[in-house]
């Protein structure tokens, strides 16, 4: 922060958060609930729930959250890296009544850690706690797993609007911390570079990422 | 990338490049084969008006581009700014002594781009296609719009223009710069300029973003020919590969992709048509941001198609398959080139986090999926997939969407594979039967089947005209 100097005072954090999880775990309901406070609304006016933004103000700092939904079907699994490159956070959603969807989350976590290391903040979310009776993923197991991979675990219900706000807020705070740590370390090294691309993008990574985009699409 | 040297080496006789009037200067296809001086004489009238306009503009602006006119304008104004541009000016002169002198005076604002480009005429003998494709006026307009915009920026505007201008020039000289290197230097330039705007001019982030958008527009318009589908990269090969691939996949249906689209609803197919048009239209734009705009428009049409089919907001689970379907139906021209161009020259932040970036990412995903698509990803058996790919069978009847819909909604694995075969057998039986009918009918009429030999001489059948005799015409 110190290195960013004058620009830091009015800075706005821009975070990209990807939403991962099998189909039918309620990813869409989760974000729609969070961004529009709607659930299964018959009169929904939103055209789409795949890209949503939310503006927050956390301890006086402005945060722009861009939430990227990803296609959860198995056949699109290989496309994951194209989606989550350069993201600051990932929300991995599973359905507590569906053991399989929790296994999928584990796969995602492995992949994310491999590709993005520890710079990405992970949230593992057990959704549909309104269906507690039909639970198939034990709380202990899920929380133990989350801890073992350095992620936070949350229980939510999009239907009852439980736990969602908290989860996003917590995620934002963690992303801000990560961003500040990064900035500080950058400030020690190359003091000049950090002011440029606003937000928390890592400057050195960006051109690479840009070319990687082409690589992904064109490699075959 | 390694191929750039040999691809460039098309040799054309020096004489073919000289001015048509034979004055000894090099000609230029953009100038109708004349050198700049003779071209001026030929085109004096047409250009006079434009020059006047340009001069008026220049006088109004009081900015450093006046230095470009300084020669023709007798330095009437711009005492302070003429020095600012002297450096690129010198550089330009020293690098191409033959073509510049007349052109510089003559083309005024236009000179910025055309002169930058014609550097390659002596060094790169074949008149580049880029010059002939390019309407010469367009960069001029771009420059003008850019200047008009910068007027609203007040003080930093002058500096921004100076930087952009000299950057374009410095890049234009490096004709053999690889695509990635060019991208890198453009991105570095964006980065440095926005840094500068942040630190020196202390503009609000929103304002700087707007400025950077205009900068991006100007730079990419100036460098378009060099930057889009450059010879040094294999973009073109990839374009053809994906085009061929999509063509081979023409049989893929909405149902195979599990896209929630009900094409039988007119409003849905309407939206899909619009989406297809938009993704094709992307190729017609030159500025990365405009191209992205078309991707976004395409996506919005897809969303409304999904919404109409499904009656709820589209999630990514719905959107991606639908987008893949649209890309398959559209087979957008120069798809890879466009993707590469946008990735290389677009403001990175727009691609990484903005809404446009999201749709663009989805488009990249769609392409990646299409490239790697196999039987499994369409829920087909490998045999079926092979059959369709080799065009021996088609699950889709474009003329009768009703058939394809109802048939594919039934179980796809077992009986469906035999369907075309069965069809063929049925059809064969049908034809046989009808031929038999016809033959039976004939049989009644011609109960005396006389073996008529048409060619024989003794044709006495009534009603037949006599056979034509060959006749010889003299002369």
UniProtKB/TrEMBL annotation, chain A:
<dbReference type="GO" id="GO:0003924">
    <property type="term" value="F:GTPase activity"/>
</dbReference>
<feature type="region of interest" description="Disordered">
    <location>
        <begin position="180"/>
        <end position="203"/>
    </location>
</feature>
<dbReference type="InterPro" id="IPR001806">
    <property type="entry name" value="Small_GTPase"/>
</dbReference>
<dbReference type="InterPro" id="IPR041833">
    <property type="entry name" value="Rab21"/>
</dbReference>
<keyword id="KW-0813">Transport</keyword>
<comment type="similarity">
    <text>Belongs to the small GTPase superfamily. Rab family.</text>
</comment>
<keyword id="KW-0653">Protein transport</keyword>
<dbReference type="GO" id="GO:0032482">
    <property type="term" value="P:Rab protein signal transduction"/>
</dbReference>
<dbReference type="Pfam" id="PF00071">
    <property type="entry name" value="Ras"/>
</dbReference>
<dbReference type="InterPro" id="IPR005225">
    <property type="entry name" value="Small_GTP-bd"/>
</dbReference>
<keyword id="KW-0449">Lipoprotein</keyword>
<keyword id="KW-0342">GTP-binding</keyword>
<protein>
    <recommendedName>
        <fullName>Ras-related protein Rab-21</fullName>
    </recommendedName>
</protein>
<dbReference type="InterPro" id="IPR027417">
    <property type="entry name" value="P-loop_NTPase"/>
</dbReference>
<dbReference type="GO" id="GO:0032154">
    <property type="term" value="C:cleavage furrow"/>
</dbReference>
<dbReference type="GO" id="GO:0005525">
    <property type="term" value="F:GTP binding"/>
</dbReference>
<keyword id="KW-0547">Nucleotide-binding</keyword>
<dbReference type="GO" id="GO:0005789">
    <property type="term" value="C:endoplasmic reticulum membrane"/>
</dbReference>
<dbReference type="GO" id="GO:0015031">
    <property type="term" value="P:protein transport"/>
</dbReference>
<keyword id="KW-0636">Prenylation</keyword>
<keyword id="KW-0472">Membrane</keyword>
From TrEMBL, chain B:
<protein>
    <submittedName>
        <fullName>RAB guanine nucleotide exchange factor (GEF) 1, like</fullName>
    </submittedName>
</protein>
<dbReference type="GO" id="GO:0030139">
    <property type="term" value="C:endocytic vesicle"/>
</dbReference>
<dbReference type="InterPro" id="IPR045046">
    <property type="entry name" value="Vps9-like"/>
</dbReference>
<dbReference type="GO" id="GO:0016192">
    <property type="term" value="P:vesicle-mediated transport"/>
</dbReference>
<dbReference type="GO" id="GO:0031267">
    <property type="term" value="F:small GTPase binding"/>
</dbReference>
<dbReference type="GO" id="GO:0005829">
    <property type="term" value="C:cytosol"/>
</dbReference>
<dbReference type="GO" id="GO:0008270">
    <property type="term" value="F:zinc ion binding"/>
</dbReference>
<feature type="region of interest" description="Disordered">
    <location>
        <begin position="449"/>
        <end position="475"/>
    </location>
</feature>
<feature type="region of interest" description="Disordered">
    <location>
        <begin position="117"/>
        <end position="136"/>
    </location>
</feature>
<dbReference type="Pfam" id="PF18151">
    <property type="entry name" value="DUF5601"/>
</dbReference>
<dbReference type="InterPro" id="IPR002653">
    <property type="entry name" value="Znf_A20"/>
</dbReference>
<dbReference type="InterPro" id="IPR037191">
    <property type="entry name" value="VPS9_dom_sf"/>
</dbReference>
<dbReference type="InterPro" id="IPR003123">
    <property type="entry name" value="VPS9"/>
</dbReference>
<dbReference type="InterPro" id="IPR041545">
    <property type="entry name" value="DUF5601"/>
</dbReference>
<dbReference type="GO" id="GO:0005085">
    <property type="term" value="F:guanyl-nucleotide exchange factor activity"/>
</dbReference>
<dbReference type="GO" id="GO:0003677">
    <property type="term" value="F:DNA binding"/>
</dbReference>
<feature type="domain" description="A20-type">
    <location>
        <begin position="13"/>
        <end position="47"/>
    </location>
</feature>
<feature type="region of interest" description="Disordered">
    <location>
        <begin position="392"/>
        <end position="427"/>
    </location>
</feature>
<dbReference type="Pfam" id="PF02204">
    <property type="entry name" value="VPS9"/>
</dbReference>
<feature type="region of interest" description="Disordered">
    <location>
        <begin position="65"/>
        <end position="98"/>
    </location>
</feature>
<feature type="compositionally biased region" description="Polar residues">
    <location>
        <begin position="121"/>
        <end position="135"/>
    </location>
</feature>
<keyword id="KW-0862">Zinc</keyword>
């Amino acid at each position: 922060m110190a290195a960013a100097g004058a620009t830091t005072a009015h800075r706005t954090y821009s975070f990209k958060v990807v939403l991962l999880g099998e189909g039918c775990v309620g990813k869409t309901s989760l974000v729609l609930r969070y961004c529009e406070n709607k659930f299964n609304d018959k009169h929904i006016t939103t055209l789409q729930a795949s890209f949503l933004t939310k503006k927050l103000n956390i301890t006086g700092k402005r945060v722009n959250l861009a939430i990227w939904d990803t296609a959860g079907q198995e056949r699109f699994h290989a496309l994951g890296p194209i989606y989550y490159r350069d993201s600051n956070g990932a929300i991995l959603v599973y359905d507590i009544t569906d053991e399989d969807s929790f296994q999928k989350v584990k796969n995602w976590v492995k992949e994310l850690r491999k590709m993005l290391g520890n710079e990405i903040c992970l949230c593992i979310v057990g959704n549909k706690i309104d269906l507690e009776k039909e639970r198939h993923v034990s709380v202990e197991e899920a929380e133990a797993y989350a801890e073992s991979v350095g992620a936070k675990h949350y229980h939510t219900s999009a239907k009852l609007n439980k736990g969602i706000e908290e989860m996003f807020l917590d995620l934002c705070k963690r992303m801000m911390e990560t961003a500040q740590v990064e900035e500080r370390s950058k400030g020690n090294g190359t003091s000049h570079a950090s002011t440029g691309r606003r937000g928390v993008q890592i400057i050195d990574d960006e051109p690479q990422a840009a070319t990687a985009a082409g690589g992904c699409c064109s490699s075959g | 990338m390694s191929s750039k040297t040999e691809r460039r080496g098309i040799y054309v006789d020096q004489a073919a490049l000289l001015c048509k009037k034979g004055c000894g200067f090099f000609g230029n296809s953009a100038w109708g084969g004349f050198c700049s001086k003779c071209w001026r004489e030929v085109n004096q009238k047409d250009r006079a008006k434009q020059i006047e306009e340009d001069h008026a503009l220049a006088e109004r602006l009081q900015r450093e581009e006046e230095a470009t006119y300084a020669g023709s304008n007798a330095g009437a104004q711009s005492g302070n700014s003429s020095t600012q541009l002297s450096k690129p000016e010198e550089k330009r002169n020293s690098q191409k002594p033959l073509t510049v002198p007349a052109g510089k005076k003559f083309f005024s604002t236009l000179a910025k781009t055309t002169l930058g480009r014609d550097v390659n005429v002596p060094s790169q003998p074949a008149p580049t296609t880029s010059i002939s494709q390019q309407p010469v006026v367009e960069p001029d307009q771009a420059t003008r719009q850019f200047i008009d915009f910068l007027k609203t920026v007040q003080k930093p505007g002058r500096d921004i223009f100076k930087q952009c201008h000299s950057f374009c020039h410095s890049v234009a000289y490096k004709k053999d710069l690889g695509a990635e290197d060019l991208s890198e230097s453009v991105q570095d330039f964006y980065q440095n300029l926005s840094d500068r705007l942040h630190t020196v001019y202390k503009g609000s982030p929103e304002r700087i973003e707007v400025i950077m958008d205009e900068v991006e527009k100007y730079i990419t318009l100036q460098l378009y020919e060099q930057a889009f589908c450059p010879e040094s990269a294999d973009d073109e090969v990839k374009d053809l590969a994906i085009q061929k691939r999509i063509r081979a996949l023409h049989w893929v249906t909405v149902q195979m992709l599990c896209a929630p689209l009900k094409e039988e609803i007119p409003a849905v197919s309407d939206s899909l048509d619009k989406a297809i048009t938009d993704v094709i239209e992307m190729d017609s734009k030159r500025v990365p941001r405009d191209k992205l705009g078309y991707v976004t428009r395409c996506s919005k049409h897809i969303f409304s198609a999904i919404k109409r089919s499904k009656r709820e907001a589209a999630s990514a689970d719905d959107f991606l398959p639908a987008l893949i379907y649209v890309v398959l139906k559209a087979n957008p021209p120069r798809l890879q080139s466009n993707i590469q161009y946008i990735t290389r020259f677009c403001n990175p932040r727009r691609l990484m986090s903005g809404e446009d970036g999201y749709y663009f990412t989805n488009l990249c995903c769609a392409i990646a999926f299409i490239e790697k698509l196999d039987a499994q990803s369409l829920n087909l058996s490998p045999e079926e997939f092979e059959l369709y790919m080799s065009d021996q069978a088609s699950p889709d009847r474009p003329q009768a969407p009703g058939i394809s819909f109802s048939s594919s909604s039934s179980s796809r694995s077992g009986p469906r594979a035999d369907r075309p075969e069965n069809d063929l057998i049925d059809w064969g039986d049908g034809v046989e039967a009808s031929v038999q009918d016809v033959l039976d009918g004939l049989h009644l009429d011609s109960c005396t089947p006389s073996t008529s030999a048409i060619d024989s001489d003794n044709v006495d059948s009534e009603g037949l005209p006599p056979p034509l005799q060959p006749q010889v015409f003299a002369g």
